[in-house]
Each structure stands twice: as C-alpha cells, then as structure tokens.
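Preliminary data (for renewal application), zinc ion complex.
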Amino acid sequence: MSTDSGAHARPTSGQRLPGHIRLTSHSGGVDAPSITWGAPTAAARGPVIATTTTRGHRNVVGTHSGSYSVYRALAVASGALSREHRADLTNTSPTDVVGPYPQWSDPEAIVSIDPWGATIADSFPDQLAAGYDVRPTIAITKAHVILPEIADAIAKGRLVPDNETLLPNGAALVTKAAVEPVWYLPGVAKRFGCSETELRRVLFEETGGMYPELVTRSDLDVFLPPIGGQTVYIFGNPRDLADPTVELTARVHDECNGSDVFGSDICTCRPYLTHAIEECILGAQNGGVGLVAYSRKEGRALGEVTKFLVYNARKRQVGGDTADQYFARTECVAGVQDMRFQELMPDVLHWFGITKIDRLVSMSNMKYDAITGSGIAVGERVDLPDYLIPDDARVEIDAKTAAGYFTSGVIPDADELRKAKGRGLTT
Ligand SMILES: [Zn+2]
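Predicted structure:
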C-alpha cells in the first residue's frame, strides 16, 4: 500500500502493526488473572482485563468502550492512535462512592455490569502495579443540567429553585454515571432462558463471526459486547439510593434520539423523560432522591433505520396511522414488536444498592415486571400527564395502554383503537 504525498497522507499501517495477525481463539496463557463473578471482594473477584496489546493478560471476550471500539480501530488504522497507548487516569476517580452493596456479591443479581468497574485504582492496585491494563468500565462525575421544560415548570410554579437541587437559572445539580456493558455470559443466558452454549453461538453468528472466542474459549465467561451502555442521572445524594428510608423516584428510559434530542412529536419519549426529571427534582427537594437511568437502545433496540421504516409503514397503510396496527407494523418490518428485552435493565439499580422504588415514573409493564421480578419493590407508578402527550403520539399511547401499559386514565376500547389519530406523511 502506498500513500500519496498530499495533505491527507498518513503513515501506512505496516509501519505500526506487527507483521502477523494475533488470533484470539487460542488460550491466552497463564498470566491472565481469573474472574470469579459475584465474589464478595474485588480481590476475590479479580479484574476485567480486555487489553488488545498484551494478549496473555486478557481474561474476557471483546474490548472496552462498547460500540466505540470500532472507532478506536479506525483511530489506530489512520495512525491517530498508538496501539500501545495506556490511559493516564490521574484525577479521573469517581466524585461519589457507590457501594459495595450486598447485591455485588450475588452472582445472579448483577450479570451485565462490572460492579467494581468504577474503582479500579482502589480495587486492583496490585494488578495495576504489576503492569496489567485494567481500565474503568464506569465513570462518575457531577453536572448541571438545563432543560427548557424545567425552566417552564419553574415559570409555571410547579418547581421552585432551592439553590441546592435546583438553581434559580433553572439548572438542576446532578451526579451522573456512565456505565459500559460487561456481561457474565452464564448469568445473561439464565436471564434469557437459554443455555450458555446457545447464547455464545448465536452471539458469534449474529455478529458475523466477530468474536471467535465466544465459541472457542469456553474458559472465558465474561464478554464486553459492542453495544451502547447506560447513563444514570441522580438528583440528590447517590448514597441515599440504597437507603430504604429515603423516598426514591426513578425512571428507566430507553433512548429515542428523534424525540429525546430533536423533539419529534410521534412519540412521548422526551415528554416522559423531562416529566421524570421534574418528578426527580421534586422528590429530592422533599428529602428524597431521584434517578433516571438512560439506556442506549434506540428504537426499541431495533435501530433508527428500522424505526423510520415503521413510521412510513404506519402512515401509509390503508386507513392511516391507527393504534390497532401500531405493534403489527413494527412486527412486519422487524420480525418482533420490541427488542429491548428489559431482563438486564435492573442490574444498574442493583448496582446502586436499590431495594425499592417508591415512585416509578413509567407506564411500561415490561419495565415494571423486570424490576419487580428482580426483587425490587415498586410503590406508586406515575403515568404521563395527558397534557404532555403530543397529538401525533396518541396512536402510540393508545396502543400501549391497550396492550397492558399502566395508566391512571381510560384504557381505549377496540373502536377507539381503530380511529386514525396519526398525521399523514405530508401534513
Ligand atoms: Zn420515542
């Protein structure tokens, strides 16, 4: 391969990469520390090591940063990033201590997060000193969040700034945690009711054979999948999340770029998200604590291309966009109604030591069932106030409440579901 001498010239990969490809499908060697998932201490559990440079140290399948591992590959390919780069973690430690909680040492309570992933410097000092490339999979920081809906709630008198949780300029003070997926495969298989062998084979095949170790290295139990993770926003003191005497308001929200970011009115995602933030602020101001866990599962985890195809199918069908065909149109395109599979979602709640949610800001029966099924008690369920539902989203909300979503309002009957309520494509 040659490079031109123009402005875009980059060093050839051959100058930096070893001459042979290092296959991952053979046993790594004796230098890899073992992982005992659910062990009571970090030392007994062992570090998660997904380094791509020292193969003998690896004790997992996959690499760090989820889907962004592909961008890291591009950075290496383009010459922008050295493969040998080691993160300088000076001053990066969490702003708040989370855990350890009893749930961390229950191998079945948490199967998709590394509970020790935020505190690697404290948890694995010996391995770090010995040169093992142990990286955080969780980061915790502080932020101010400023949303027009919260400013509106202040203007309308629903919220009052207290200079503690909510500032007069409308900024809410939060602690936020970014969490990468770290899957303990035997535990994930159990949640999905399949065998580990079956799960590993399907993961291997459905990613186009991307991770051969899934099928060749049964000694590796932990997989860092190439998917998005979660971000958690906490209103109030994060330590209070584990305190059963402190009232907890919580929403678990699945990503919807079109509504959450761009304000598209075909669904209720952003209104519900901002409503939950308002409820969380109120809860924190009343001596409680609030939590919003945001999962990267765009378009019911079907992706945005599928989602937009479904929008067209809904709006072009004979009779227009009706609630009685809402789920059917998704199933026609995607083969399923939903791929979010809430089975893994409660893990992040257990990571914070949560044992009960006083006010769950969600209408989803799937989320409710997953949370209560994982042993977390739920008190009140808070539905979306009618005035926050955009006109074009009536189809969605009717279809969902008819299908079993929680509502304190009226459940639409069959006649109601057949009435077209969604806009056409050109209006
Ligand atoms: Zn949405």
